[in-house]
Amino acid sequence: MDIKSIIRKKRNKEELTRDEIKYFVGKLGRGEITEAQAAAVISYIYTNGLTEDEILYLSIAMAESGDMIDLSDISDKIVDKHSTGGLGDKATILLMPILASLDIPVAKLSSRGYGITGGTIDKLESIPGFKTDFTMEEFRSKLRNVGVCLMNQGMNFAPVESKMYKLRNELACQDSLPIIAASLMSLKIATGSNKLVFDITCGKGTYITNLDQAKRLAKLLVKLGKRIDKEVVCVITNMNQPIGMSIGHNLEIKETIMALRGIIADDLANVVEVIGSIMIALATDNKNLVENSKTIKETIKSGKAFNKFKEMVAAQYGDTDYIDDPELFEKSKFIMPVLATEAGTVASIDSDIVGSIASYLGAGRMKEEGKINRTAGITLNKKVGDTVMVGETLAYIHTNDESKVNNTTQHLKDAFEITTKKLSDHNKILSIIEDVK
Predict the structure, then answer these.
(1) H/E run at residue 431
(2) pLDDT in tens, 98-138
(3) Cα(356)–Cα(55) distance, rounded to whole angstroms?
């Protein structure tokens, strides 16, 4: 067995054995194959696909390439949630303290962002002092004592998954459903959670561009879950606009804090309540999703979720003064409005355009070692369904570079599709898939 024979088999559309996939993952993890050889395998997978067996073997091999966690001694009701990424998505950060305040432990492994969407760790590290690099014992201790902990998966969890993620982005293969499915499942195998909710974002600014692709991925994940005795539910969310009102690290954390205080955008609230209700149903005997949604609202209204978030931040060495007073977060030197030049109703907001502008302003990381300007970004003043008059503010640009304001104003305006027609339903949740025959 050698890497060239594996490349030939995928080039010829042949199925790889479990041993061949384990061999490839092992060699990639140890750096014993060239980047060109790894790129060839990924490219042929992208072109020719993988069978269900191959995806399962790849998931397991990537999970076993690093540390594995067993949290069964801490709780038997740990539910994990993972998003495929959406512009402005801070639902995961909100759900962590909400569920923990309901005595549902949340053990979260995450990574730093790469591309136009920011990573969960990047956003939380906007809080001064916030730390995610822990030993396994520290992670377990914080989870046991606080009920929630976020840890950097880059320590040694599914390290080959991180390499595959980087390569598939560099090769423009980021929308490969088999690799996405294997990557997602490998992380969940490594964390040891048996109840999983996947938030599959669908539309512009995401890897999954249409509903058909999203459903195929969802069904694949549910099937994989059954084969390894994991209960999997997939929620497909509509990305016809960024989630919430802000894009950019400091801006999104400030929005998160306000959301936990009860001031939350309708679309963000919709995603949090639907996914949170399912997570509660998986972890407890409360299977009524309507009642679970009410519980989430009450948890926010009572302040329990906010207090748990503050406890979580303190446990991870973050400065809680910033949670009590979000105005302490540094702001950009220039905050400039983008004004509407036509009247009507917002039909959509192009996340690709908004994400590219946010990255240009400094809010995105376009290479692994790239730096982030935490103050940069965009805040939306209008969302899908809102009425707009000429001269009203559509959004604000946040930047420290005044020259970038003129370069982005017209482009950001172009991201807004304004219509005079009556809009059809624009729900955020497109589909929920939990069983596949």
Answers:
(1) strand 429-433
(2) 999 999 999 887 766 555 556 788 899 999 999 999 888 89
(3) 32
Structure tokens at 200: 């599959």
Rounded to 5 degrees, what angle do the CA atoms 137, 66, 309 make? 45
Residue 286, amino acid: N
The residue ranges of DSSP E strands in 113-159, in sequence order, are: 148-152
Distances (CA, A) of 432 to 194, 287, 289, 305: 19, 15, 12, 25
Phi, psi of 40 (to 5 degrees): -65, -45
Residues 193 and 184: their CA atoms lie apart, in Å, by 12
Pick from 113, 120, 54, 127: which is nearest to 81 by CA? 120
Report, as an integer, the average pLDDT of 364-378. Answer: 75
CB 63 within 8 A of CB 164: no
Domains belonging to the chain, first-starting first, are: 3-49 (no CATH), 79-155+191-325 (3.40.1030.10), 331-419 (3.90.1170.30)
Q: Counting every residue, how long is the chain? A: 437
Q: What is the pLDDT of residues 185-239, one digit of tens each?
A: 998 888 777 889 999 998 877 888 889 999 999 999 999 999 998 999 999 998 8
CB 8 within 8 A of CB 32: no
Residues 6+ apart with CB under 8 A from 312: 96, 97, 100, 146, 148, 149, 150
**Torsion-angle region of 227 (φ positive above 0: left; ψ -120 to 50: alpha; else: beta):** alpha
Q: Could you give the C-alpha distances from 284 to 112, 121, 189, 279, in angstroms and in order?
A: 31, 28, 21, 9
Measuring CA to CA, which residue among 299, 269, 314 is closest to residue 103? 299
Name the nearest CA neighbour of 278 among 199, 216, 378.
199
| Closest listed residue to residue 418, CA positions, set 340, 338, 339, 346 | 346
